[in-house]
Amino acid sequence: MSRQALARYGRIAILQHWVSVALIVTLFGLGWRMVSLPLSPSKFELYTFHKSLGLVVLALSTVRLLWRVVSPVPAPVDGPVWQQRAAAAAHWALYALLFALPLSGWLFNSFVGFPLSFLGLVNLPPLAAPEPTLKENARLAHLWLGYMLLALLAIHAAAALHHQFVKRDGTLSRMLPDLSQATRRPT
Amino acid sequence: MLALIAPTMCLAAPSWTIVPAESSLSFQTSQAGGTIEGSFKRFDARITFDPADLATSHVEVSIDIASVTTGVAERDQELPKSDWFDVARFPRATFTADRFHALGNNSYVADGMLALRDIKAPISLPFTLESQSDGAVVMRGTVDLDRVTFGIGQGQWAASDIVGRKVTVVVRLRARRSG
Q1: Is residue B8 part of a domain?
Q2: Size of interface A-B (CB pairs under 8 A)
Q3: CA of B30: which chain A residue's CA is closest?
Q4: Which contiguous run of DSSP H or E holds residue A118?
Q5: Which of A4, A79, B134, B143 is the most buried if burial means most Cβ atoms within 10 Å?
Q6: Range of the domain at B144
Q7: With 60 as the cut, is the pLDDT of residue A134 above it?
Q8: Residue B6: inside a domain, yes or no?
Q9: The domain that contains A20 carries what CATH number?
Q10: Residue A146's domain spans which residues?
């Protein structure tokens, strides 16, 4: 990799990042909507879609984490050491939550005893045997991990926007497609 | 009078009593694409059956609908409601059959009527019989039903397959001759 390539995230990392964003936003929307609906076929369909997208996040996060480990990433942007450390901690905490959140949902579903089907196509096994005494704990874990992810995402996005538009150091641009290169390439 | 009844009784097929602990009435369907299983814990059966005298054989199974369970509280609390079995109005289902035909190899078909909720519809239940060493007989039968035929799942549920319309009913009875 040339030094220039390391000035920004690679195209695959960028794609993975924004697909994750789209999935997570959709999952929060589905999650809130589905729990508020009265019992109906639509409620079941939203749950199925939420669970299926959650499984996609789990799979994508696995690929992303492996990709993060094997592919080079840009160096931390200039700034106080505590900010660099906080940013690194936030990134790893985000990865942890991208696993913990879908897994806690899967566990909740398992304790309740509901089947888990990916879009009605493939049946997935439960992570544990049905256990009515633990399902409320699992539900709360899934809920609070969700709030934690939301809080971290808010900080992560606020920091990126602060760097981009207040400090004007191009932090956010590193995670956006390089349009200048894309338009230049054909020549 | 007795003289008239007695010969009829002698000719009738023998009656059988089921062993509840070794009999089950279970079903399999789907929820959001995943398989779920359930059963009716309480039912009784009046069976007069003779493979050599199918014409006088008769079966009547009465099912206590409130005994339905799928092993998950969230589901089990919905099933008795009016959208599903409506247990308050229709506490029992019955299957009656008096037309049987033999298919060979201990296989038979019972053509009968299933009365479930407020609907009575004909169903054909294929089954096998297996004699046990202790003189009991094990009957096994499986039939696919469309829950909507019997109004199980009213309103929006009737039009949706998110709770599977196809329900596979699996009957296993162990019966002893009682007369």
Answers
A1: no
A2: 50
A3: A115
A4: strand A116-118
A5: B143
A6: 13-177
A7: yes
A8: no
A9: 1.20.950
A10: 5-184
- DSSP structural state of residue B163: B
Quick one: which of B11, B112, B119, B121 has its CA closest to B56?
B11
Q: What is the pTM of this model?
A: 0.86
Residues in chain B: 179
Residue A100 CA: distances (Å) to CA of A11, A73, A108, B83: 26, 24, 12, 37
Question: Predicted confidence band at A183 (pLDDT cuts at 50, 70, 90)?
Answer: low
Number of folded domains that form chain B: 1
Residue B109: enclosing H or E segment and its boundaries?
strand B107-116
Q: Are A113 and B72 in contact (CB under 8 A)?
A: yes
Is the Cβ pair A41, B156 closer than 8 Å?
A: yes
Could you read off the pLDDT of A41-78 as tens digits, one per residue?
999 999 999 999 999 999 999 999 999 999 988 888 88
Residues of A with CB under 8 A from a CB of B: 39-42, 44-45, 47-48, 112-117, 119-121, 123, 130, 132
- Structural domain includes residue B5: no
User: Using CA atoms, how far apart are residues B135 and B175, in angstroms rounded to an integer?
Assistant: 9
pLDDT in tens, A2-27: 444 478 899 999 999 999 999 999 99
ipTM of the modeled complex: 0.81
Q: Enumerate the residues of chain A whose CB falls inside 8 A of the CB of residue B36.
A: 115
Q: What percent of chain B has pLDDT over 70?
A: 94
Both tokens of B147, joined, read 């829950």
Nearest CB to B162: which of A44, A113, A121?
A44
Query: Is the CB of A41 less than 8 angstroms away from the CB of B162?
Result: yes
Q: Is residue B65 part of a domain?
A: yes
In B, residues 63-82, which contact A (CB 8 Å cutoff)? 71-74, 78
Domain harbouring B90, CATH code: 2.40.128.110
